[in-house]
Fold this sequence. Notes:
Elements: E1 3-4, E2 11-12, H1 21-35, E3 39-41, E4 56-59, E5 64-68, E6 73-75, E7 81-82, E8 96-99, E9 104-109, E10 112-118, E11 125-129, E12 135-136, E13 142-143, E14 148-151, E15 156-158, E16 165-167, E17 171-179, E18 189-195, E19 198-207, E20 214-217, E21 221-223, E22 228-235, E23 241-242, E24 251-258
Parallel strand pairs: 3-4, 7-8
Antiparallel strand pairs: 1-2, 4-5, 5-6, 8-9, 9-10, 11-14, 11-24, 12-23, 13-22, 15-16, 16-22, 17-20, 17-21, 17-24, 18-19, 18-22
Amino acid sequence: MATFTTRLGLRKPAGTEQSNVVTDLNDNYDKIDTAVGATVCTSGTRPATNLFTGRVIHETDTRRNYVYDGTNWIIASSIPIVSSTASILNPYEGLLIYNTTDDLIYKYRSSTWIACLATGSTNHESRYYQSVAQSIANSADTYLTFDATAYSSADVTRDGTNTTFTLNRGGLWEISAGGRLIAATSGQRHLFIDLFGNARVAGQTTETSQVTGLTASTGPIRIASGQAVKIGMFQTSGAARNTDISGQMTFISLAWLRP
């Protein structure tokens, strides 16, 4: 009794049967010819029989290629879609992948996966602010604490004191901060960014007007993973002064831009 192949349904006569040129040869040839390359169809005429994992179709109305995964037709991606770089067992130089966990596109270079493009809705920036006023001593650098979160990402870790922020991803960053003191009627006010363990190395603003808010920014700057960032204030009004917390006036923003 004849049997049939699992994918294309080609007829295979039993060893004791005679072969029929029309049903055993010509029909099989036609099925093989139809199956060569992607099956051309429309989105409304996708194949319903002879489905197998890996079968490819090309839809003329959508101009898309689809691959059958054993259950559904899925769009044939130009780059692998994974939830972890470890899913690629044999990467090669220059391979691009899309990681659904962090919405980043990675490139394999020199035996290392390099994040090269942020995409999707995953945050790669963090913003924190003060919801409780902080006293800034007279004539002494004071590091600011940021107890409230506007939004956060896995790229930044805030320590238990809400003062130090560790960057977990190396690359091009932009760090900015803002602040204002209440009732500082005289003297100078400074806002600075402490980076690479050095106070005031990354950005500083100075203001002598009591009503003016201070801002400081690094601009785009290349920072290695593991670096810590702190924001400091200095004032010489003659007494301790409190920070202004209205409208998230006192804040820190840390944004990863690219590798």
